Amino acid sequence: MPASSEAPPLTRAPKPVPKPGILDIHAYTPGKATVDGVADPVKLSSNENILGSSPLARAAFVAAVDSLHMYPDGQASALRAAVAAHFSLEPERLVFGDGSDELLHLLNQVFIEPGDNIVMGQYGFSAYSIGARACQGEVRHAAEPNYKMSGEEILAQVDDRTRLVFITQPANPTGTFLTRDELEALHAGLRSDVVLVLDGAYAEFATDPRFDVGMDLARGHDNVVVTRTFSKLHGLAALRIGWAYCPEPIADAVDRIRAPFNTSIAAQQAAVAALADVEFQERSREHVATWRPWLTQQLGGLGLEVVPSQANFVLVEFPTTPGRTSTEAEAFLASRGLIVRGVSSYGLPAHLRITIGLEEHNRAVVDALSDFLKA
Ligand SMILES: *Cc1c(COP(=O)(O)O)cnc(C)c1O
Questions:
Q1: Which residue in 63, 160, 205, 306 is a FRET match for 269, CA 20 to 30 A apart?
Q2: CB atoms < 10 A from the CB of 88, how many?
Q3: Each residue of 69-120: pLDDT tens digit?
Q4: Domains annotated on the chain, with CATH
Q5: Distance, CA 46 to ligand 1 centroid (Å)?
């Protein structure tokens, strides 16, 4: 080898180092998608729509092939008009994102400077905390007694450096929610300069009459944002498209820093079509409304504790007795081709989160866990 291609001598020159705190962040742990030795496993680990996606949305996605050479409309004008009409919202108060995940990150970027903090639930979604810590913010966790957010616990964590409070409505991974009254009381207890972010990723699956994702609260206040997504009800998780309903000054701030073409043409067009497919939305909602209570009741009948859920999944607690633990149950289900979600990364090592599947999947889960607990 010629001398010139030898490795350069080690120097004391400084190396690029991420800013403080970045390397303390644990990357998001996604739900598993494969099992060794199982050809076609059933994925019940990421709360995807088990019915797939709307035929109209699929057709719109296919048609978008003719626009591959084009930049998307950075204002997502057609989708903006469709969302505004569908939900009776002011179009100028909407911001679209590369999944609602991106909007959660952008909200942190807009509000958090080093030393500021966010408040979120003890079992809350890690996208909130990752986003805050990336801005060198701190994360304060509010206790969730009985797996449910509590307005009092949240307010007890708010201090003079709190800029954002994140509530998932209904929550992932617990499936619980704050009632309309609880939400209003929480908002009334917050300083007017703290932004209440209501993440409604699963809002469409809620059937409890006391549930309210908070659109009216957002409409009437300068410090409430609601985020929504096409990933869950509409089954468009692959396309990465979500939106936020914000007070106008917040929409304006987010618009200044987002990437100009953050949502693709295919995603925008499929989302417009999905929104128009009320039949698919109804079918998806009815499927969850039918099988969620069934799964809750059947698993309860096996002696397992199931947290009452308003989302398209259930959270199940397992004993700590060797042979009966959540880790062993997860492996047993996997051996039968059923992938569910271990949630120790959410602070729930004894629980599994199971997405509502098709009838045969739900029956297979119950049969497998019955055999597991008998073994
Ligand atoms: C799935 C999910 C979302 C949606 O994320 P997208 O980026 O829109 O796919 C948001 N929040 C929570 C809590 C979720 O579980």
A1: 205
A2: 8
A3: 999 999 999 999 999 999 999 999 999 999 999 999 999 999 999 999 999 9
A4: 26-51+279-374 (3.90.1150.10), 55-276 (3.40.640.10)
A5: 10
